[in-house]
Amino acid sequence: MNDSTFYGTGRRKRSVARVYLSPGKGKILVNGVSFKKYLCRQTLATIVMQPLVAIDGTKSYDIKINVKGGGLTGQAGAIRLGISRALLNVNKDFRSTLKSRGFLTRDARKVERKKPGQPGARANFQFSKR
Protein backbone atom coordinates (compact mmCIF):
# COMPACT_ATOMS: atom_id res chain seq x y z
CA MET A 1 0.00 0.00 0.00
CA ASN A 2 1.11 3.59 -0.53
CA ASP A 3 1.79 6.38 1.98
CA SER A 4 -1.78 7.67 2.02
CA THR A 5 -3.29 4.30 2.98
CA PHE A 6 -4.11 3.71 6.63
CA TYR A 7 -4.67 0.31 8.23
CA GLY A 8 -6.84 -0.88 11.11
CA THR A 9 -7.74 -4.32 12.49
CA GLY A 10 -11.12 -5.02 14.04
CA ARG A 11 -12.39 -8.12 15.84
CA ARG A 12 -15.74 -9.18 17.24
CA LYS A 13 -16.92 -12.65 18.27
CA ARG A 14 -15.19 -14.94 15.73
CA SER A 15 -14.80 -12.27 13.02
CA VAL A 16 -11.61 -10.50 11.99
CA ALA A 17 -11.65 -7.46 9.67
CA ARG A 18 -8.62 -5.90 7.97
CA VAL A 19 -9.46 -2.34 6.95
CA TYR A 20 -7.47 -0.27 4.42
CA LEU A 21 -8.54 3.38 4.37
CA SER A 22 -7.39 5.91 1.77
CA PRO A 23 -8.55 9.39 0.71
CA GLY A 24 -11.32 9.14 -1.88
CA LYS A 25 -14.99 9.56 -2.70
CA GLY A 26 -16.66 7.30 -0.12
CA LYS A 27 -16.57 3.90 -1.83
CA ILE A 28 -16.62 0.97 0.62
CA LEU A 29 -15.83 -2.57 -0.56
CA VAL A 30 -16.10 -5.65 1.66
CA ASN A 31 -14.39 -8.73 0.19
CA GLY A 32 -14.64 -7.10 -3.24
CA VAL A 33 -18.39 -6.38 -2.99
CA SER A 34 -20.26 -3.19 -2.06
CA PHE A 35 -20.74 -3.18 1.73
CA LYS A 36 -24.53 -2.71 1.50
CA LYS A 37 -24.82 -5.72 -0.79
CA TYR A 38 -22.47 -7.83 1.35
CA LEU A 39 -24.08 -7.10 4.72
CA CYS A 40 -27.67 -7.49 3.40
CA ARG A 41 -29.38 -5.63 6.28
CA GLN A 42 -29.69 -1.86 6.65
CA THR A 43 -28.97 -2.05 10.40
CA LEU A 44 -25.59 -3.68 9.75
CA ALA A 45 -24.75 -1.10 7.06
CA THR A 46 -25.58 1.63 9.60
CA ILE A 47 -23.23 0.04 12.16
CA VAL A 48 -20.38 0.07 9.62
CA MET A 49 -20.96 3.76 8.80
CA GLN A 50 -21.13 4.99 12.43
CA PRO A 51 -17.43 6.01 12.82
CA LEU A 52 -17.46 7.88 9.49
CA VAL A 53 -20.70 9.70 10.38
CA ALA A 54 -19.22 10.64 13.79
CA ILE A 55 -16.28 12.47 12.17
CA ASP A 56 -18.28 13.79 9.17
CA GLY A 57 -16.15 11.76 6.76
CA THR A 58 -18.71 9.67 4.83
CA LYS A 59 -17.55 11.00 1.45
CA SER A 60 -13.88 11.56 2.33
CA TYR A 61 -12.41 8.04 2.28
CA ASP A 62 -12.37 4.95 0.08
CA ILE A 63 -12.30 1.82 2.21
CA LYS A 64 -11.23 -1.69 1.22
CA ILE A 65 -12.08 -4.37 3.77
CA ASN A 66 -11.14 -8.05 4.02
CA VAL A 67 -13.27 -9.83 6.60
CA LYS A 68 -13.48 -13.49 7.58
CA GLY A 69 -15.01 -15.68 10.25
CA GLY A 70 -18.22 -15.50 12.23
CA GLY A 71 -21.57 -14.26 10.98
CA LEU A 72 -22.72 -10.97 9.51
CA THR A 73 -23.39 -9.28 12.86
CA GLY A 74 -19.91 -10.11 14.18
CA GLN A 75 -18.37 -9.04 10.89
CA ALA A 76 -20.18 -5.67 10.97
CA GLY A 77 -18.89 -5.04 14.51
CA ALA A 78 -15.37 -6.02 13.48
CA ILE A 79 -15.51 -3.69 10.48
CA ARG A 80 -16.69 -0.79 12.67
CA LEU A 81 -13.74 -1.27 15.05
CA GLY A 82 -11.32 -1.60 12.14
CA ILE A 83 -12.56 1.62 10.52
CA SER A 84 -12.31 3.45 13.86
CA ARG A 85 -8.72 2.31 14.38
CA ALA A 86 -7.76 3.25 10.82
CA LEU A 87 -9.27 6.72 11.34
CA LEU A 88 -7.05 7.14 14.41
CA ASN A 89 -4.03 6.59 12.17
CA VAL A 90 -5.34 9.33 9.86
CA ASN A 91 -5.78 11.93 12.58
CA LYS A 92 -5.23 11.57 16.35
CA ASP A 93 -7.80 14.35 16.97
CA PHE A 94 -10.61 11.90 16.07
CA ARG A 95 -9.85 9.93 19.25
CA SER A 96 -12.09 11.89 21.65
CA THR A 97 -15.06 11.74 19.26
CA LEU A 98 -14.72 8.02 18.54
CA LYS A 99 -13.95 7.07 22.15
CA SER A 100 -16.92 8.98 23.58
CA ARG A 101 -19.24 7.04 21.27
CA GLY A 102 -17.63 3.70 22.19
CA PHE A 103 -16.24 2.86 18.75
CA LEU A 104 -12.71 2.14 20.02
CA THR A 105 -13.78 -0.47 22.57
CA ARG A 106 -13.32 -4.10 21.57
CA ASP A 107 -16.57 -6.00 22.37
CA ALA A 108 -15.17 -8.99 24.25
CA ARG A 109 -18.44 -10.97 24.45
CA LYS A 110 -18.19 -14.43 22.91
CA VAL A 111 -20.36 -17.53 22.88
CA GLU A 112 -20.01 -19.51 26.09
CA ARG A 113 -19.07 -23.14 25.58
CA LYS A 114 -21.52 -25.98 26.06
CA LYS A 115 -20.95 -27.88 29.32
CA PRO A 116 -20.91 -31.70 29.55
CA GLY A 117 -24.13 -33.29 30.85
CA GLN A 118 -26.18 -30.24 29.83
CA PRO A 119 -28.01 -29.34 26.61
CA GLY A 120 -26.35 -25.93 26.41
CA ALA A 121 -24.02 -23.52 28.18
CA ARG A 122 -26.37 -22.62 31.05
CA ALA A 123 -29.48 -24.70 30.32
CA ASN A 124 -30.05 -27.92 32.24
CA PHE A 125 -32.27 -30.87 31.55
CA GLN A 126 -35.55 -30.81 33.51
CA PHE A 127 -35.08 -32.12 37.05
CA SER A 128 -37.36 -34.92 38.17
CA LYS A 129 -37.50 -35.67 41.89
CA ARG A 130 -39.28 -38.98 41.36
What does this protein structure show overall?
The structure is a single chain. The protein has one domain (6-100): Ribosomal Protein S5, domain 2 (2-Layer Sandwich). The protein is an alpha+beta fold and 130 residues long. The mean pLDDT is 93. The chain contains four helices and five strands. The chain has helices spanning 35-39, 42-54, 72-90, 95-100; strands spanning 6-12, 15-23, 28-30, 33-34, 61-68. Strands 1-2-5-3-4 form a five-stranded mixed sheet. A hairpin with a 2-residue loop joins strand 3 (28-30) and strand 4. Helix 2 packs parallel to helix 3.
Topology diagram in text:
Blueprint: E1 6-12, E2 15-23, E3 28-30, E4 33-34, H1 35-39, H2 42-54, E5 61-68, H3 72-90, H4 95-100
Parallel strand pairs: 3-5
Antiparallel strand pairs: 1-2, 2-5, 3-4
Helix pairs in contact: 2-3
Q: Which CATH top level class fits?
A: Alpha Beta
Structural class of the helices, strands and pairings?
alpha+beta
Mean model confidence by pLDDT: 93
Tell me the strand percentage band: 15-25%
Provide the succession of SSEs. Answer: EEEEHHEHH
Task: Provide the domain count.
Answer: 1
Strand order of the largest sheet: 1-2-5-3-4
User: What's the story with the biggest beta sheet?
Assistant: 5 strands, mixed
Topology-level CATH name: Ribosomal Protein S5, domain 2
Helix segment tally: 4
Helical residue percent?
Answer: 25-40%
What shape does the CA trace take? Answer: elongated
- Oligomeric form: single chain
* Architecture (CATH level 2) name: 2-Layer Sandwich
| Alpha-carbon Rg, integer | 18 Å
The CA-CA distance between the termini, in Å, is 69 Å
